[in-house]
Amino acid sequence: MTDDNEKKGTDNRGEDGGVFDVEIGPGADLRDLDMAGEDFNKEDLHGADFTSSDLEGATFDGADLTEAILDDCDLEKVSFRKAILERASLFSADLEQADLRGANLRGANLQDADLEQANLQGADLRDANLQDADLERANLRGANLRGANLADADLERADLTRADLTGAMLVDADLERAILVDAILEKASLAEADLSRANLTRTNLRHTTLDEASFRKAILKDTDFTGATPQPDLDNRRT
Description:
Blueprint: E1 8-13, E2 19-24
Antiparallel strand pairs: 1-2
């Protein structure tokens, strides 16, 4: 362990095989480096720039990555449990099977990110940008997605049980076979969204926008459509 008053250093091997030392700390320049498997647990990395770095399998549990830049990073199977990623940029990052349980991603930019099978249970994603993100089979149980932008996102087979999507933007999102049991989507926009075969048991869809949304073969047991516009044509949802 390093002293709390010192910046942590890590050895990195360049293409020529030489080893160079990099200082780790707030605002650090960590672009284009191979740091796969490194331990950054509880580190202060506020504003650090990791653009295009290989961090596969690294751990950032409890780390402060507020406003950090992780664009185009390989973050496959990385652990961010209870990490602070508020207003961080993860544009087009590979987060497949990443562990983000309890992470603070409020206002983070995850546009075009690959979050397939990622674990985001209980994560704070308020006002996050997830436009065009791949969240297929992701675990979003109990996640806070109030005001999040999920337009054109792939949420096929994602688990959104008890998730809060109040006021979220889900225009043209793919929610086929998604689990939305006890989820809150009040005042969300679901125009042109595909909810085919989704489980919407006890889902709150009060005052949602549903223009051209598809509920084909969806499970709509005790689903609340109060004030939704337009009201869905449930008679034809099995066609």
